[in-house]
Amino acid sequence: MIEQLAVFSENKPGRLERITRVLAEAHVNIRAFHVASLGEMGIIKIVVDRTEDAYRALSAHGTVRKMPVVAVRVTDRPGALHTVAAVLAQAGINIENVSGFGISRSEAILILEVSDVPGAERILSASEFTTLDEGEFAAVVG
Amino acid sequence: MSEVYDPLEIAPRADLAALQLDRLRWTVSQAARSTYYAALFAALKLGPDSIASPDDLRRIPFTEKQHLRETYPFGLLAVPKDEVVRMHHSSGTTGMATAVFHTMRDVDHWADLVARCLYMVGVRRGDVFQNMMTYGLFTGGLGLHYGAEKLGCFIIPTGAGNSHRQIEFMRIFSTTFIHIIPSYALALLGVFEETGVDPKGLSLKLAVGGAEPYSEGMRERLQKSWGIPFYNCYGLSEMQGPGVAFECPAQHGLHLWEDSYLVEIIDPDTGEPKPDGEEGELVLTSLTREAMPLLRFRTRDLTSIIPEPCPCGRTHRRLSRIQGRSDDMFIVRGVNIFPLQIERVLMSMPEVGRNYLIVVDREGYVDRLTVRVELTPDAFQGELAQLRTLQEKIARALREEILVNPRVELVEPGSIPHQEGKAVRVIDERT
């Protein structure tokens, strides 16, 4: 598993600018980014290449939590996400959120927020998917 | 000269003064039957004949809301409990609540005063009265109800809310007057528009506005849109409820019934008396209340006495429109709220910090209360669902305390500006 950062923020102009500025100044590169809003407030979820640096920088400027997510390496072709989803559905594991990005012309990384992180990793590995830990993730994206 | 419900309304000042003196002496001895005043009089070495005139009254210190809270529930009760037929009660829980008691005679006299008020503005037997004020522990509902009943009105006790139904009733039953809080009267204009009903086409002839102050500008707007006069009613539960003072058709000041209340206007900082015509804090001494008489009660309402006699001929002096408060209490949709109540609820929740801001504004026609509170960093778990649950938990806890449904905004720690000196906790953007 790898760690995602969740930043609490008010839903108003300037907040995204501030958070991305903090990350830029810390020389952190963003890999996945997701904004969830609920009226006046929201949460920004970020996966970066240097989690600890990002966490330190963001903590100094706001409220941030680390949360475990599953990083899965997949072949970048039609049906890849579907297969992952099917495996998790079979196992009764809920997907809260998913995002992804390509790392080469033939491969991609999926970032999955799930209801049961260890369970998801177990079942995906058993189905011959490659799940990444922090070190492996950094090596792939860094 | 107007018709009066009670000849006392036009009694010469000298007769009024004599009556007040009699009633003051009675009230002081009645008050001495409560534990609070008994102890106070003992400490001041005041005997039954010590208070022989209104000037002597100044030997007694002011009674404040805090005293009611501290002696809750029965410290100010002056009759045996089995003589109490009614109780009214404020919002708030331990340390913030007040209870006010009434004997049968208190309820009856209250009804008479309200009848006097309504008669003054033209209410008569046969008028159809839709009482759109909350019934229950608040005094507004039952207070006007009993007074209107004395006059023989056809009363529809709708209470507040259910706007479409309220309008239907006005149509079907040909309501001729209503009792309503001004902000609700404003909100109803929106419902009239929405349903295509013209309030001017109904049978209404007047409205009584109470439970919250509102500007002259807003009153003019209401009168214009509804097509009827809105008369101001003043009251406080400690003195009975609505009907302590009321406007006459001249709509220039509210006649305060001096046969039932002794009026003082004081400087809120020094406690010294202010002359007629100058603004200060209204202090009232009840003259007829049996169950719970109060002496020199600081209302915290800022007003002045209008010195000139009124063209209507009534000899009871008028109070000018209430200008504000000398404490931090504010009113939303007719409900009194103290920032301290909100603060105590927030302090009991570790997920939020002590820094908060209360914003009262108006969205369209409706009053809105928002409590902005800083999230404690440790309380953030990274999920929206958790934030939503927390928001709802705070709103529910606040609602239980203040009896109004607030919007709760969770904001980032440090985003509510810290203030030097006395914190401004409430921003009221209504006009």
Beta-strand residue fraction of chain B: 15-25%
Count of alpha/pi helices of chain B: 10
Reported for the largest beta sheet of chain A, the result is: 7 strands, antiparallel
Termini separation of chain A comes to: 16 Å
Kindly report the average pLDDT value of chain A.
91
Greatest interface and its residue counts? Answer: A-B, 17 and 15 residues
The count of DSSP E runs of length 2 or more, i.e. the number of strands of chain B, is 21
Topology-level CATH name of the largest domain in chain A = Alpha-Beta Plaits
Question: Ranges of chain A with pLDDT <50 over ≥5 residues?
Answer: none
By CATH, the architecture of the largest domain in chain A is named 2-Layer Sandwich
Mean pLDDT of chain B comes to 93
Strand order of the main beta sheet of chain B, please? 4-3-5-6-7-8-9-14-13
Q: Low-confidence parts of chain B lasting 5 or more residues at pLDDT below 50?
A: none
Q: What does the radius of gyration of chain B come to?
A: 23 Å
Can you give me a brief rundown of this structure?
With about 140 residues, chain A is an alpha+beta fold. In chain A, about 35% of the residues lie in helices and about 40% in strands. Chain B has a 9-stranded mixed β-sheet with strand order 4-3-5-6-7-8-9-14-13, with helices on both faces. In chain B, strands 10-11-12-15 form a 4-stranded antiparallel β-sheet. In chain B, strands 20-19-18-21 form a 4-stranded mixed β-sheet.
Task: Provide structural commentary.
The complex is a heterodimer of chains A (142) and B (431). Chain A is 35% helix and 41% strand. Chain A is built from 5 helices and 7 strands. In chain A, strands 1, 2, 3, 4, 5, 6 and 7 form a 7-stranded antiparallel β-sheet that branches. Chain B has 431 residues and is an alpha/beta fold. Chain B folds into 3 domains: 7-108 and 233-327, ANL, N-terminal domain (Rossmann fold); 122-228, Rossmann fold (3-Layer(aba) Sandwich); 335-428, ANL, C-terminal domain (GMP Synthetase, Chain A, domain 3). In chain B, strands 4-3-5-6-7-8-9-14-13 form a 9-stranded mixed β-sheet, with helices on both faces. A 4-stranded antiparallel β-sheet of chain B has the order 10-11-12-15. A 4-stranded mixed β-sheet of chain B has the order 20-19-18-21. In chain B, strand 16 (330-332) and strand 17 (335-337) form a beta hairpin. In chain B, helix 7 packs parallel to helix 8 (216-226). The longest helix of chain B is centred in the first third of the chain and has 19 residues, at 13-31. The interface between A and B is medium-sized, with 17 and 15 residues.
